[in-house]
Amino acid sequence: MINVEFMLSFLTISLLLAVTPGPSNAFLMAQTFSKGRAAGVQSAAGFAVAGVIHTVFAVLGLSAILKTSPQAYQAVLFLGATYLLYLGVMAIKDSFASQETAIAATVDKKKNKVFFQAMMTEVLNPKVALFFIAFIPQFVDNSLATSPTIQMAIFGLMYPLFALPIDLSYVHFGDKIAGYFRTHPSAQVWLDRITGIIFIALAISMLL
Predict the structure, then answer these.
(1) Angle at 79 between CA 127 and CA 74, to 5 degrees
(2) pLDDT band at residue 110, thresholds of 50, 70 and 90?
(3) Distance CA 150, CA 33 (A)
(4) Which of 1, 54, 145, 177 is the most exposed place for a label (fewest CB within 10 A)?
(5) What's the Cα-to-Cα distance from 64 to each of 78, 81, 121, rounded to whole Å?
(6) This prediction's pTM
(7) How many Cβ atoms sit within 10 Å of the Cβ of residue 16?
């Protein structure tokens, strides 16, 4: 169905990409530090689902529009950066509420939204879309009976499945590191503020 040699090369490169620190890892760790292991797991799941969505976009050719249309690319880039800015500002804003509100209401309420936030952050990142359309086709073997479209779909779906355990390992160790801070209410407030700053920095980085 697919070229085994190409698959091994794909998995090797995917491993290097998944373990290399980047914006997705920063988002993942920030959520884990501020909201705990459950939020980190939801973030990792959100990234995995976003990978499936990007695969569908790449197979349908929608990602190619971002590559050929500067206007479309800039529009998606602006939406993604704006969404991250919104998350960052809200995290900082909520950290200035009373400690009881920050711990009981803010954290518990936002845990339910983490999956959606992570998924939308990844979906609205045009660089991720271009990664799928530029990276995956390199491993398509036109000599096989399997159509290039199906091969792209297989490789595209393999990446989030392969990256998910690595993201979960980041969550595991990040939760261990943040364990001390979450036992101190004042530290939780500062973790929320740091999370907000990270989101804003990611938004600025995306625009640049």
Answers:
(1) 55
(2) low
(3) 39
(4) 145
(5) 18, 20, 19
(6) 0.78
(7) 8
Alpha-carbon 32 to chain mean position: 13
> 91 is written with which tokens?
């995290």
Distance CA 170, CA 181 (A): 17
**Residue 65, both tokens:** 């529009």
C-beta separation of 51 from 156 below 8 A: yes
d(CA 118, CA 127): 15
Distance (Å, whole) CA 126 – CA 134: 12
| Cβ-contact 166, 19 below 8 angstroms | yes
Assign 145 to helix, strand or coil.
coil
Q: How confident is the model at residue 112 (pLDDT cuts 50, 70, 90)?
A: low
Helices marked H in 61-182: 62-68, 70-95, 99-100, 108-111, 114-123, 126-135, 148-182
Which conformational region is residue 36 in: left (phi greater than 0), alpha (psi within -120 to 50 degrees), or beta?
A: left
